[in-house]
Each structure stands twice: as C-alpha cells, then as structure tokens.
C-alpha cells in the first residue's frame, strides 16, 4: 500500500465515481483505475463493487483506516512545516458565499499580514457540506451556521447575525409603526432555500408563529434575493450585516421574534493545528471577543 493508492481509493468513495475522483485529484481516469487494481491485487480483496458503484465489506473497513492514515499524514506534514519558519502552507477554509463576501475580507487581510507565506484556499459550500468536508479532513477549518452535528468536531462561536425584514423601497409596509407576521400574509416572499441552515431556522420560526408565507422564489443566495427585492418581486428576511442602510431599491425594517443566526468556526477534533491555523482562528475569534 502507498499513500497515492489510498488517496485514490478514498476519493472514489467520497466523490461517488472513478471519473469524479480523477477530476478531484487532477489525475486521469485510467491512472485512478490502475491504482485501485494494484491495491486490490496487493491486498487480495475486491474493494469496490463496480456493478453497484459501492464499497465491499473489505473496502468499507479499508476506507475507515485509510482516511485515518491520510489525516495522520497530513498532520505530520503540518508539523514539519511548522518547524520551518518560512515553509509554504495552505489552509483550506470552507464557508458560504455571504460569509466570504461580507465577514472574512477584513480578517483575511489581517491574517495575510501575519502569515505572508501561507496560502488560503476558500471553498464555498453550504454549512452542511462544509461540516462534512471538515469532518473528513478535506477542509482544515469551516465557518458555518450553527448548530451543527459536533461529532468529532471542535466548535468556536464567532459572531451573531441579526435578521431584518427587507422590502422594496416603495412597499407600503414601511409606513407601519410596527409589523407582525399577520401584516405579511398578502405579500410575495423570497426565501432562503430550506436546505440551508438559516432557511431551516426561518421555517421553524414561521411554524412557531403559525405563519405560512406566500413563496414565489427560493434561493440559496442572499445576493440573489437582494437583487430580486430591488426588482419588486417580493420581500424577505435577510441578515443586517449584508445590508447597507442607504442601498438604493431596498428598505430595511425592524421585525420582532426572528431567530438570531449564530456563526461558528469548526475543525476536526484531534487534528494537528498549525501555528498559521491557530492565528487565523484567533483573528476570527477576536470579532466575537470584541462584540463584533
């Protein structure tokens, strides 16, 4: 067994096919196939059921240990890099488009000044996808909407997002002294996809207050929703942090009884944390410590 064959084997399971694994690893599909054939010959077992594209019992056992071996190897490499003051490192960070656009830039700037020889690789995915990538070791750090399944993860709260009602600038709701869910019944809604954690938190809030919105659009992007509000398509609940009070086409209204969105940093429990990763987490954590 060698690390390359184990890496290819794990990628096939995690990516779902030989072709997807080849693309993820930047290898040719024949090269991936040859690695698996050699591994199966060496071990004396079929590891992947090609007909059903699934792991055999022996493959399932190997995957568990192979992933541990690869994670341990990565930790060793990080420790070796830490011994070299100017060793080039890469930190893989997973987060949403919104967090990458509105929350991270200032902190990333501070980090790059502290660690100019460290490269950051930003991966934009949903919180659920980021959590699984951190748990598998494919990401070093995730910035996600909480709560999350904390199995095998360390969690640090970073900041809170407050939601507001956002409507087109000519919407009559802006003339009300106070607004309740009953006032929103007749208005078309643009909602964050229920497959996102914020979307699920909003759905739970609606259920708690007996409110059924008239949904005309679901989207996984706050930016898309903002754009459609400006066009007069509907209204929505959005984080105050991504809104500019003077933004043309939008009117931001206070609304009670909305959930607070908690954003946290997650990393795999027990994984070696390089000095650069420690610095990045400290910079991110400083926003919460200072009330930012």
Portion of residues in helices?
40-55%
> What is the level-2 CATH architecture name of the largest domain?
3-Layer(aba) Sandwich
Could you list the spans in which at least 5 consecutive residues all have pLDDT below 50? none
Beta-strand proportion: 15-25%
Main sheet specs: 5 strands, mixed
CATH homologous superfamily annotation of the largest domain: Periplasmic binding protein-like II
Count of the separate structural domains:
3
Which structural class fits the helix and strand makeup?
alpha/beta
Number of helices: 10
Gross geometry: elongated
**Distance between the first and last residues' Cα:** 49 Å
Kindly state the mean pLDDT as a whole number? 88
Query: Within the largest sheet, what's the order of strands?
Result: 4-3-5-12-6
CATH topology of the largest domain: D-Maltodextrin-Binding Protein, domain 2
Fold and architecture overview:
- It contains ten helices and twelve strands.
- The protein is α/β, with parallel strands linked by helices.
- It folds into three domains: 3-79, Winged helix-like DNA-binding domain superfamily/Winged helix DNA-binding domain (Arc Repressor Mutant, subunit A), CATH 1.10.10.10; 85-160 and 263-289, Periplasmic binding protein-like II (D-Maltodextrin-Binding Protein, domain 2), CATH 3.40.190.10; 163-259, Periplasmic binding protein-like II (D-Maltodextrin-Binding Protein, domain 2), CATH 3.40.190.
- The strands form four sheets. The chain has a five-stranded mixed β-sheet, with helices on both faces. A three-stranded antiparallel β-sheet has the order 10-7-11, covered by helices on one side. A two-stranded antiparallel ribbon has the order 1-2.
- The mean pLDDT is 88.
């Amino acid at each position: 067994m060698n690390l390359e064959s184990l890496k290819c084997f794990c990628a096939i399971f995690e990516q779902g096919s030989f072709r997807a694994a080849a693309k993820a690893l930047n290898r040719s599909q024949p090269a991936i196939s040859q690695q698996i054939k050699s591994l199966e010959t060496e071990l004396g077992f079929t590891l992947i059921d090609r007909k059903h594209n699934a792991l055999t019992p022996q493959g399932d056992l190997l995957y568990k240990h192979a992933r541990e071996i690869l994670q341990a190897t990565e930790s060793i490499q990080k420790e070796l890099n830490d011994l070299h003051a100017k060793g080039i490192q890469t930190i893989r960070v997973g987060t949403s488009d919104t967090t990458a656009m509105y929350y991270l830039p200032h902190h990333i700037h501070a980090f790059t000044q502290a660690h100019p020889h460290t490269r950051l690789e930003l991966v934009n995915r949903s919180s659920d996808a980021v959590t699984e990538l951190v748990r598998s070791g494919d990401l070093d750090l995730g910035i996600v909407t909480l709560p999350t399944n904390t199995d095998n993860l360390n969690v640090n709260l970073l900041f809170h997002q407050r939601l507001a009602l956002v409507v087109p600038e000519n919407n009559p709701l802006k003339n009300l002294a106070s607004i309740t869910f009953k006032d929103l019944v007749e208005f078309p809604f643009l909602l964050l996809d229920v497959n996102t954690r914020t979307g699920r938190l909003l759905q739970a809030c609606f259920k708690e207050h007996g409110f059924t919105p008239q949904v005309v659009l679901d989207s996984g992007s706050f930016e898309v929703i903002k754009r459609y509000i400006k066009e007069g398509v509907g209204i929505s609940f959005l984080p105050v942090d991504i809104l500019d009070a003077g933004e043309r086409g939008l009117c931001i209204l206070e609304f009670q009884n909305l959930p607070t969105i908690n954003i946290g940093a997650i990393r795999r429990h027990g994984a070696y944390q390089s000095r650069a990763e420690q610095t990045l987490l400290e910079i991110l954590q400083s926003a919460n410590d200072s009330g930012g």
